[in-house]
Specification:
By secondary structure, the chain is α/β, with parallel strands linked by helices. It has 13 helices and twelve strands. Strand 3, helix 2 (about 75-80) and strand 4 form a beta-alpha-beta unit. The protein is elongated and about 60 Å long.
Length: about 325
């Protein structure tokens, strides 16, 4: 019994050893022997970076950046195409420490690092969010070397006045052209609908214009923001005497100059003090639109920023419809 048991154990061990050797020999031999099976194809990998054109020439950026710090003023556009920034300069024009109300939900959780029209950015705050891509505009280029040491940094220049062109530029940077065109089409359809409703209520020949108060100066929205929305997007009629806007700077007039722009409806962005000054002026009270009660007063914040914001202006359409239909 003892011998049989020992022999059985040895036999099993020999079989196992022989089997293992055979498998190894087959495997090793197979590495050196041509195979009739087709070789496995490598799974194509998306490139890690791609080159884009910037104001400093072509730059390689991450193909799918995950942590964008945007100081250039395009954060709402980034959100539209699916890239919510971890840090942003899209703060309120009258308080750089907070978001304007219309962006609070959109940019919730993003760190504020400045204001896009300012020439400084919070470099320490950008460093803290560990970005993989930083976007600035030419006003902030003095911080370029510092920022480039943190992460890939590109310099772009939104025009501000041409929001469609700006959005298309962002869409091209991030290969999101279809999302951009869909957003533009949706906005334009809504703007035309609102414009038609206003003209149906007030008459097709009613004229409109908006301005911002600033002490003794009045900044006219003609080719940008409210002017662009009124005349280009909504198709409302331009009042006679409205000057053209040929740069990012808004044209200005004096109080007496306002009397030379006889609009039926006025939209005014004013502080409480500036409103009180106007309402106490005999020149102001001589305006026909004032006498007929066709004046809409809005606070400077958030309404100054909002008409420039690509995301904000879409929300603003519904408000303007309610405000301008008398």
């Amino acid at each position: 019994m003892y011998k049989t048991t020992w022999f059985a154990r040895v036999s099993r061990q020999a079989l196992i050893s022989w089997g293992v050797s055979l498998v190894l020999a087959f495997a090793l031999g197979g590495c050196n022997r041509p195979s009739s099976a087709a070789p496995a194809k490598d799974t194509p990998q998306a490139p890690q970076t791609r080159r884009v054109n910037t104001l400093r020439g072509p730059v390689a950026i991450p193909t799918r950046p995950q942590r964008i710090a945007d100081a250039s003023g395009i954060s709402d556009m980034l959100c539209i195409i699916g890239y919510k920034p971890v840090a942003t300069a899209d703060s309120d024009a009258y308080d750089y420490t907070r978001f304007p109300t219309y962006l609070q939900d959109l940019l919730s959780g993003s760190v504020i690092i400045g204001y896009p029209m300012a020439d400084t950015v919070n470099v320490e705050a950008i460093l803290a969010v560990e970005p993989d891509l930083i976007i600035i505009n030419p006003r902030q280029e003095k911080a370029y070397e510092q920022l480039r040491a943190i992460a890939t940094t590109i310099v772009i220049e939104p025009t501000v006045n041409d929001w469609r062109g700006d959005l298309r530029m962002v869409g091209e940077l991030f290969e999101a052209q279809s999302a951009v065109e869909a957003y533009i089409a949706e906005y334009e359809a809504k703007a035309q609908e609102v414009g038609e409703a206003i003209k149906a209520a007030n008459g097709p020949d009613a004229t409109y214009f908006a301005f911002l108060t600033g002490g003794n100066a009045y900044y006219l929205f003609t080719g940008a923001a409210y002017g662009d929305m009124f005349y280009n997007d909504m198709g409302l009629k331009v009042p006679p005497g409205l000057p053209e806007q040929d740069s990012i700077t808004l044209p200005t007039v004096s109080l007496e100059g306002l009397t030379e722009i006889p609009a039926d409806y006025l939209v005014i962005l004013a502080s409480a003090d500036d409103r009180a000054t106007l309402e106490g002026s005999s020149v102001w009270n001589s305006l026909e639109s004032v006498q007929s009660g066709k004046v809409i007063w809005l606070p400077q914040s958030p309404y100054f920023n909002q008409a420039y914001s690509i995301y904000g202006k879409k929300l603003l359409l519904d408000e303007l419809k309610d405000l301008l239909i008398s």
